[in-house]
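Open question from group meeting: does this chain pack into something compact, or does most of it stay loose? Before anyone orders reagents, we agreed to write out a predicted structure and look at it together. Recording both the input and the output here so the notebook holds the full record.
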Amino acid sequence: MNSRKVLLFILIIVSYGSYAQKCSCEDNFYWLKKTFEENDAGFQYVIDEKGLTEYKNHNSIFVKKVKKIKELDDCRKVLSDWLLFFRPGHLSLSVNQENIKKTVSKVDPEVGKNWEKVEIKEDVLKDNLLRVVQPSFEGIWVSGAYTIGVVKRNDEYIGYILNSEGTKWKQYQVKFKIKENLDKTYNAVYYMGDYSVQKFNDVQLIGKNLLKIGFISLVRTFPNNLEDTPLINDYIESLTTQKPYLKEISKQTILLRIPTFNYSNKKMIDSILIANNSLILSRENLIIDIRNNGGGSDASFQKIIPYLYTNPIRTVGVEFLSTVQNNKRMEDFMADPDWSAGDKEWARKGLEKLNANIGKYVSLQENTVDEYKLDRVYDNPKNVAIIINKNNGSTAEEFLLAAKQSKKVKLFGTTTEGVLDISNMYFVDSPCKDLKLGYSLSKSLRIPDMQIDRKGIQPDYYIDKTIPDYDWIKFTENILIK
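Structure tokens returned:
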């Protein structure tokens, strides 16, 4: 290393050292606490529900914890735990990579460079895998940007990176470990994109080509001669796609799969419905599978409503907590070049109303309850089943609240996540810009009479654990056609 590089390296270390000294975990904790108390729309609701004494006890535990923490990522994890006192969703705390990378990445450009490795080349691994008689976790798998080889060493299955273009991960680094328990179930330790640890006690090989580690799905690419049943192949498709699709699964039943209500999917959802309108209206049964759909935009499900509509649908509104910081979101909207003149005018009027009521909850809607009416009720589909699970939240739950008001609709599956009452997230940087907090600006007027947060929405037909995930659609259709 030449003298100029040495000097630059020292300057960077000093810069980051002073940066870290200004931004202790204790400093970040007190910023987080103050910001959340003053601005989150759900803060006071939880305090009223749990009591001030319990909140003070919670704080005293974390005051002691943060004093001992030196590393930023450790601090983020502990402060995220502090937030869980309030709710599990519509909250986030992340390392602000846009600012941190200017210092941290220059000090250590090889993130995870001392990480455990399995240095088996792909061609060697393939030769070894051809000797494996029974399909197992051993193989080559793909999950998103990761191509992962899995080998067995002693009593563990170890997944390591073969290719991970566009990520922080390097070839041969260990991505996960799976260990068998005495009862023949499996536990896994999985390292996320930022190298943080996630532990799972739900590890399954479904069929021959799908490996599920908690909410993470991996599809086998080698050996590539292991054939699954059509039922398993359909399930793999439903788990791995992020695009909606529709298919005819019997003479009576149409399946509509919607993995996300993200606004980016709205046009595709709408076009699928338009293209298949006659087909949908010619069948008695419609199954809408929204498993693992974590939400998105309410606009994405509006075109589905006519197919299940039987009577007016009532939607209870929200109220926004007006604070100087929260109201900046309206200013952001007004400055957004992608917003239309009409939308900017709505934001201007909303900002005016909010600024006139600082410290109060404010409704930006004309009516507390909106009623959605249509002129027509379709004869078909006669029965609409919506398949749900624990990973449904936010907009997905808003869709269910609307759908449940139809006489045609029944819910199948398990209770949803329960993250809807406190919503409309806003993101702010910490004073030292090393952390980014996402909190919520609005509170539903349904609560406390009809609370969804921490409770979820229950199915009409509970699908218990004796029915495998890949069989849920067939189970649901059997109920519909009886």
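Observations to bring back to the group:
The radius of gyration is 25 Å.
The chain is about 35% helix and 25% strand.
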